[in-house]
């Protein structure tokens, strides 16, 4: 009985207590510019990762896809651990190694027992500075990536968002896909991949992050041992500047009446990562809500747009998004609907945007802020999510923003702020549109543009 009582008390921490009891994130910058950050806890496991300011935005038309190709090659052995030796060493630790590439960042991380943290740091260092890039492995991975590209074409949601970037940032680096084109993947060489690593994998653009049962001092010592060699020596002229990207209100339509459902994405230009307007826009998106036919609740959902979708059978699903980059972003919504419901769904969604600009209420703002707080605290679930949060924060903001500060920013939002900020980014702005599938009913761009404001007397 005493054990059960103590267990209940441990799980009864209030929301405020949870925020106050989060361990402080410690950050140390090495002489070569590498930032080492960690959050210590009593977990028996830890996640150690390397977050790098590199992605498809730093590629040109000829090298687009090099970062994604490099991500594949990173797990295929190093000069010290050729072939399967690298994989066997990771497996001998019982660890999990993973990575991803996006438009502005690349990450590699290992989840392992806390005692194996120094070995995880060594493996990450070996992975990024001694990648073998064997010709036989390159050809093998080339075939795998080409097959992945074919499979990605079957994901219409991903295709729609790639089209959205292509039209919103046409002629710039953000218009490129992360995976690259089929033509590029076929012709990228070992020299191209080696050049990508030498150009972008520089210490000032890296964050070594860790979370779990680890010591920050031990993490720094391991970083000094493995991340201070010649490849990580910083030269001021060796780090290329971020290419400038400009938003354009335009559209891409890929009509295919053989497909069963239409995928539509509409977006306006949003703010960059560090802009405080992001918090308000995230509250606005929480007001809009999200919907899928598999959800329960029916007509009794708090989202007005979801209620309309249920009552009038407008769509199969919809979801708002706020995708941020260093100096720009895409704020919008994506929905999937039957061919004969496209016009009605677009009308209702744009009407909801206009309502946010003109008549958002305090009650729905309060509900949206509570939803955001719940999503924020969910970041504490597991060392991997905490580690990713640390690495991404340092790349995006230059510091790790504590959850208490995020909570204060959310609490400061009221209905007037939502109306003002939504008017700033949405009202009477030219949107970017991407549409795939049976989209005959999607209205002309000028008609959609005319619904971005209300004529009021």
From TrEMBL:
Iron recorded as keyword: no
A Pfam family the protein falls into: Peptidase_M16_C
The UniProt record lists the keyword Mitochondrion: yes
Compartment(s): Mitochondrion inner membrane
GO molecular function: metal ion binding
Chain ranges of the Peptidase M16 C-terminal domain: 188-370
Mode of membrane association: Peripheral membrane protein
SUPFAM superfamilies cross-referenced by the UniProt entry: LuxS/MPP-like metallohydrolase
Signal sequence, start to end: none
TM regions (residue ranges): none
Cellular-component GO terms for this entry: mitochondrial inner membrane; protein-containing complex
Keyword entries, A-Z: Acetylation, Electron transport, Membrane, Mitochondrion, Mitochondrion inner membrane, Phosphoprotein, Respiratory chain, Transit peptide, Transport
Residue stretches making up the Peptidase M16 N-terminal domain: 35-181
InterPro entries documented for this protein: Metalloenz_LuxS/M16, MPP/UQCRC_Complex, Pept_M16_N, Peptidase_M16_C
Primary subcellular site in the record, as a coarse category: mitochondrion
Subunit: Component of the ubiquinol-cytochrome c oxidoreductase (cytochrome b-c1 complex, complex III, CIII), a multisubunit enzyme composed of 11 subunits. The complex is composed of 3 respiratory subunits cytochrome b, cytochrome c1 and Rieske protein UQCRFS1, 2 core protein subunits UQCRC1/QCR1 and UQCRC2/QCR2, and 6 low-molecular weight protein subunits UQCRH/QCR6, UQCRB/QCR7, UQCRQ/QCR8, UQCR10/QCR9, UQCR11/QCR10 and subunit 9, the cleavage product of Rieske protein UQCRFS1.
PANTHER family, alphabetized: CYTOCHROME B-C1 COMPLEX SUBUNIT 1, MITOCHONDRIAL (PTHR11851:SF116), METALLOPROTEASE (PTHR11851)
Entry similarity comment: Belongs to the peptidase M16 family. UQCRC1/QCR1 subfamily.
Protein name: Cytochrome b-c1 complex subunit 1, mitochondrial
Name of the coding gene: Uqcrc1
């Amino acid at each position: 009985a005493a054990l059960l009582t103590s267990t209940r008390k441990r799980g009864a921490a209030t929301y405020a207590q949870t925020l106050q009891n989060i361990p402080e994130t410690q950050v140390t910058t090495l002489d070569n510019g590498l930032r080492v950050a960690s959050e210590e806890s009593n977990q028996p496991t830890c996640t150690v990762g390397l977050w790098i300011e590199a992605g498809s935005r730093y590629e040109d038309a000829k090298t687009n896809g090099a970062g994604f190709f490099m991500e594949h090659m990173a797990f295929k052995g190093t000069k010290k651990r050729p072939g399967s030796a690298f994989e066997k060493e990771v497996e001998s630790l019982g660890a999990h190694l993973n990575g991803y590439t996006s438009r502005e960042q690349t990450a590699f991380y290992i989840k392992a027992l806390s005692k194996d943290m120094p070995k995880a740091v060594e493996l990450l260092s070996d992975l990024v500075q001694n990648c073998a890039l064997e010709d036989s492995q390159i050809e093998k991975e080339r075939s795998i990536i080409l097959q992945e590209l074919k499979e990605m074409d079957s994901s219409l949601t991903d295709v729609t968002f790639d089209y959205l970037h292509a039209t919103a940032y046409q002629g710039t680096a953000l218009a490129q896909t992360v995976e690259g084109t089929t033509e590029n993947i076929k012709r990228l060489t070992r020299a191209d991949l080696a050049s990508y690593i030498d150009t972008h994998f520089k210490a000032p653009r890296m964050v070594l992050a860790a979370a779990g049962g680890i010591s920050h001092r031990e993490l720094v010592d391991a970083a000094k041992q493995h991340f201070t060699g010649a490849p990580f020596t910083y030269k001021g002229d060796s780090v290329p500047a971020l290419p400038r990207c400009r938003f354009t209100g335009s559209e891409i339509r890929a009509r295919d009446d053989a497909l069963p459902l239409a995928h539509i994405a509409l977006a306006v230009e949003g703010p960059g990562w560090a802009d405080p307007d992001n918090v308000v826009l995230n509250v606005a998106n929480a007001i809009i809500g999200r919907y899928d036919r598999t959800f329960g609740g029916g007509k009794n959902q708090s989202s007005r747009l979801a209620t309309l979708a249920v009552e009038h059978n407008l769509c199969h699903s919809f979801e708002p998004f706020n995708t941020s980059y260093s100096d720009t972003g895409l704020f919008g919504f994506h929905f999937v609907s039957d061919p004969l419901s496209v016009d009605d769904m677009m009308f209702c969604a744009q009407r909801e945007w206009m309502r946010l600009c003109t008549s958002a209420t305090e009650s729905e703002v309060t509900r949206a802020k509570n939803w955001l707080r719940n999503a924020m605290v969910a970041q504490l679930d597991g060392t991997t999510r905490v580690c990713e949060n640390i690495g991404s924060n340092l790349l995006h903001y230059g510091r790790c923003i504590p959850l208490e500060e995020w909570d204060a920013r959310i609490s400061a939002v009221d209905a007037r702020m939502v109306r003002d900020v939504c008017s700033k980014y949405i009202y009477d702005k030219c949107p970017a549109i991407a549409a795939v599938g049976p989209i005959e009913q999607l209205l002309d761009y000028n008609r959609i543009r005319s619904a971005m404001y209300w004529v009021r007397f």
